[in-house]
Design goal:
Structural class: mainly alpha
Largest sheet: none
Order of helices and strands: HHHHHHH
Number of helices: 7
Radius of gyration: 17 Å
Number of domains: 1
Distance between the termini: 55 Å
């Protein structure tokens, strides 16, 4: 592997890995597990449908979540990047846990936000996604660029969810 960002990414990782106890970073990383993050999205989808009587935003959020592995897994196979603590293993770039957290938590916030009329859903979603990414980096399971790439890759999917949610709450003309 090579590239202009590889050396700074590795240096930053060496400074950060294991600076926080593993018990803490593992719990943060677990926020990106499918059994943790996806139920949050499913509950937000149900809440959104109940409140707005519109299925499109919820289905768009579900589709975005379903597309995460379709985007992430081929890139992991293609790049075959080793992990910070496991140089013999491959498939760390981009981070599936970060992508799952972003799609689930930010998707949920986009569905709930218009009904809450408060900034807390998005603030909480960004916090949970950042906590997941931080846990993955500090534990040594991912390089910093792995988690950053996942956030960028999820952005177009989440923009579609935001657009569908905004259309559902617009007042009828």
């Amino acid at each position: 592997m090579s590239g202009p960002l590889l050396a700074p990414d590795e240096r930053l990782s060496r400074v950060l890995v294991r600076t926080v106890p593993d018990a803490v970073t593992e719990r943060l990383s677990d926020l990106g597990n499918v059994p943790v993050a996806v139920p949050v999205l499913v509950l937000a989808m149900a809440y959104s449908v109940r409140r707005s009587r519109a299925w499109a935003p919820a289905l768009t959020a579900g589709l975005a979540m379903a597309l995460v592995p379709a985007v992430i897994v081929p890139l992991k196979a293609w790049t075959a990047r080793p992990g910070p603590l496991e140089p013999w293993a491959a498939g760390y770039y981009p981070s599936g846990h970060t992508a799952t957290a972003a799609a689930a938590y930010v998707g949920a916030a986009l569905l709930i936000g218009p009904h809450a009329r408060r900034p807390w859903p998005m603030a909480l979603a960004l916090f949970l996604t950042a906590a997941t990414a931080t846990g993955l980096i500090l534990r040594g399971w991912h390089w910093p660029l792995d988690v950053l790439a996942s956030c960028f890759l999820c952005t177009p999917l989440l923009l579609l969810v935001a657009r569908a949610a905004a259309r559902a709450v617009r007042p009828a003309a």
